[in-house]
Structure formats: C-alpha cells, structure tokens
Amino acid sequence: MAQIPPQESPVWNDRELKFARTLIFTVEEINRDTKLLPGVSLGYRLYNGCGSENLIRAAIEAVSGDSKGCTAQIQALLGHSSSGVSEDINNILSPLSIPQISHLSTCACLSDKKLYPTFFRTVPSDRFQVMGLVQLMKYFDWRWVGIIHSTSMYSEKGIAEFVEEAIKEEICVEYKLPYTKTSKKKINTIIETVRESSSKVVLLFMSLSYTKSILSKMENYNISGKQWVGSESWITQLDLASVKRKNILQGAMGFALPQASIPGLELRDNMP
User: Cα(212)–Cα(83) distance, rounded to whole angstroms?
Assistant: First the structure.
C-alpha cells in the first residue's frame, strides 16, 4: 500500500500532510485490531513529490518495487488529490492491474472504466456537484452567470459539464474566463470582465491552490455586488477569509463534502 501526497515544495501544504497522517493512523488502527485482517499486516511507503513529474516518478518506483526497504510490488496505491495527476498515475497502474484509490480526485471523467479500469475513489464524482450547482442556481432563479476556472482537468471538465446541464435549465453563461497563476494579462482581463459584466453571479470552479492564488490578487481590487458560488475544493476553507476579501467571499455559496470525526485521530492546523 502506498500513499502519494505532495519533494521539496516551496509552500508547506498542511492539507496534504493531514491526508498522509490520516492514512498512517488508519493503517496502524487496522494492524492493531486482530479481528479485521487475521494473520495479515499492512505496510505502506509514503512518497513526497511536489509537482506531477515527481509524483509520477514515485508511482513508477512503487510499482517496480525499486525503493529502499521494499522489494515487492505494491498491492494498491492511494492518491492523488488532483484529478489530472490521478489520471497520469492510473495510465501507469492500469496495464499492471494495480488498483488506485483516490481520496479527493472528483473529476467525473475518471468514472470511465474503459479508460481508467483500476481507478476507484472514496469521494463522489463531480457529476453530483455539477447537478447540485445547477439546481442551486435554478432555485434562486440565477439565470445569467459568469464562470472563472483554471486550466486543470478538474476545472475544465467540471465546467464543461456544468454548462451542458445549465443549458437544459435555461441558465445562460455570460463569460467563461480561464485563470493561470503566472499570467498578469489574464487576471487583468478577469477583473475588468467581472466588474463590467451584467451577470451578478460568478461561479469560481478551481482547486484550492488556484483559488488562494486568484483571491490574493483580486483582494487588491474593489469588486462588490456579486454573488460568488464556489466548488467543493475551496468553499469551506476558513483560511481563505480575510478583511480584504470580505466583499468577495461574504455570502459565498456552494456544496461541500461531509466531514466526520475519527476517534483517536488528532490533526492540528499549522503542524510542524
């Protein structure tokens, strides 16, 4: 068993570390209970890779058994958070019939068993989120909306499906704007479009890291009078809130994955 959270990352990722620590706790709990898997002890190796290239290299190392202390091929691989990285990893695992189980890759496209036969997940497909977002807008009679998205697989596939379902409910999209972390021109275009658009509802559909990036830039502008709708990747993240972002995030709505308390598991924020 192997978990692939994010090699030397420039930014400490608390959330990915919590995922890894939760895995360690779970494996230890299973091994401690002799009734769950009698005569079987689970092992794992954690791979730390900042960026998809390192993660894919870790996947290759895991399946080949070419790692210190582990000579056998893994029986399953847990990860990744990113739908795009999970897709790349499964292209390596599927020909070897090695199961991959993701805790956070939600792209509906990964449900295609012809393309990703050994991919499984413990979270719902984005298909359900998209249907919920469309029904939310229908309920409030928001028929004229704008969309800001990243260029990732998660975002582009989710937006494409949202637009398809929105049309069925006579919800129209005024604009679809792609955002990248490095393009100053694109953020200027986004700011100008959001300000001048007639639609009052803005759907921000992107990963948490992209959301943090775009909000850090938008907070420097006076943007108000908009109803923001968020994807599950960021809508419940309290650390996004700040005084500068009050005009943007106040009243933001969206759907989130249910949370649960795990007895014995303690995860602190800002862990060393």
Answer: 18
